[in-house]
Specification:
The chain has about 425 residues and is of the alpha/beta class. The chain contains 14 helices and twelve strands. The chain has a twelve-stranded parallel beta sheet with strand order 1-2-3-4-5-6-7-8-9-10-11-12, sandwiched between helices. Helix 1 packs across helix 3 and helix 5 runs parallel beside helix 6. The protein is globular and about 70 Å long.
Length: about 425
């Protein structure tokens, strides 16, 4: 090829910017990861949600990076999608991101005249997998980062496998830059006992917080900030707000005009007594509960079912997550009058006997809870195992134990299980 030969130029279709914008939206959209769609998955916020959606967010980032590199026109259209949802998996990514945001905020970015990029960010996930070079340097980068994200609505941090920053008070203060826009807070780090008050003040300063997930240890030396229940819809604690004092709850209630709490997640590994006092005051507001029954026994699950039945008279939906289906037995359970029951097992390859027992238990639930309308498998692996290996068990249950029933049994995507079985 001649040295002076010109490089071929790709001619892009001449389309209005609005149409390109719509195309980029379709190409990069990840369902249930932004406001308001994420609220539909609020009860799963935490490790279960992250395990499903973090890989999808990372894959979408790859697509977005390619889009902004095509040409200048596409850069200006697609850059908002690239920075709409940010994922930080390594410490060096934090440093690079902060430097880029600061340059554009100062008007010194690579693309001249571009607006500050941080204004587009609605979601930030921090899942650092490597150790920082210097803790104090990392803290300053976090502070600089949060001050550049004025419209942040979803923040998730998981740093259990590496040491978190030594001091978090500066980070808490920086997060207040997004206080008016923050709707989902998923905080999963080892607690700093001496900074529990600062963390509680941060949570109280988020007036529009909808979904709150954090480790119980943050409240081990102080009262749970019940004042947030005038905005929070979904509460996900690794452990319960243990031994809250009744007069403290009454005092907080007097300062609240209304309670917005509707969904609660319980971890049944810990004693049901950790939630008794709390639910005595707020159970009447609850319409949806989830029982995390990992590492739990049938008795643990039944204790929580009894509490929900006793203290949550308006509950409509319930999900139960177990290690194996054999943990679930409703023979001696006090069952809440729900309309929806969802469940999953972390053991993806269950036995034929396990599925037989599962359907027998579901039939018991159906017979004893006349309000039940929907039963749903929540995990794709459980559905795949049932369809491919134990379809005869499901067909027998639908033909006999659920014959003539008004209860719909759905797969993880909301499709009738009978339709999936018909294709086998």
């Amino acid at each position: 090829m001649a040295a002076g030969a010109k490089r071929a130029v790709t001619q892009l279709p001449s389309l209005p910017p609005e149409l390109w914008d719509y195309i980029f939206e379709l190409a990069t959209h990840v369902p249930y990861t932004l406001i308001p769609e994420i609220f539909e998955k609020s009860i799963f916020i935490g490790s279960i949600y992250n395990r499903e959606y973090h890989p999808k967010l990372r894959a979408a980032l790859v697509t977005k990076r390619y889009l902004v590199r095509v040409c200048r026109q596409w850069w200006h259209i697609a850059i908002r999608y690239l920075y709409r949802a940010i994922y930080i998996g390594r410490a060096r990514s934090l440093i690079s991101l902060c430097n880029t945001l600061e340059k554009y905020a100062a008007g010194k970015g690579t693309v001249a005249g571009a607006e500050p990029l941080g204004q587009w960010t609605q979601r930030l996930d921090v899942a650092i997998r490597d150790n920082p070079v210097r803790q104090d340097v990392d803290v300053q980068y976090y502070i600089n980062l949060f001050t550049r994200l004025p419209n942040l609505a979803i923040f998730s941090i998981r740093m259990l496998d590496v040491p978190p920053p030594t001091s978090l008070s500066g980070i808490f203060n920086a997060l207040r830059c997004s206080a008016s826009s923050m709707r989902v807070l998923d905080w999963n780090t080892s607690p700093h006992t001496h900074e529990q008050c600062a963390f509680a003040e941060l949570v109280r300063s988020l007036p529009r917080l909808h979904t709150f997930h954090c480790a119980y240890q943050w409240w081990s030396k102080m009262h749970f900030p019940t004042s947030i229940l005038s905005s929070v819809n979904t509460l996900v604690l690794n452990r319960g707000p243990h031994e809250l004092e009744k007069d403290r709850l009454t005092e907080s209630d007097s300062e609240q005009t209304h309670i917005t709490l509707r969904k609660v997640v319980f971890d049944s590994f810990f004693s049901v007594h950790a939630w008794e006092e709390f639910m005595s005051s707020y159970g009447t507001f609850i319409t949806s509960v989830q029982i995390l029954a990992f590492r739990s026994t049938t008795r643990d699950i039944n204790n929580y079912l009894g509490m929900v039945n006793r203290l949550c008279p308006h509950v409509l939906q319930m999900t139960i997550l177990v290690d194996v289906f054999s943990c679930m037995s409703f023979v001696d359970s006090l069952l809440p009058p729900v309309e929806y029951l969802g469940f999953m097992s972390r053991k993806f390859q269950e036995t034929r006997a396990a599925y037989r027992r599962l359907f027998s238990n579901l039939a018991i639930f159906k017979d004893r809870v006349p309000t039940l309308r929907v039963i749903q498998f929540l995990d794709s692996h459980n559905v795949q195992c049932l369809i491919t290996r134990h379809s005869q068990v499901a067909l027998h249950a639908l033909k006999h134990e659920f014959a003539g029933s008004n209860v719909r049994i759905l797969d993880h995507e909301g499709n009738p299980l009978s339709e999936r079985l018909a294709t086998v």
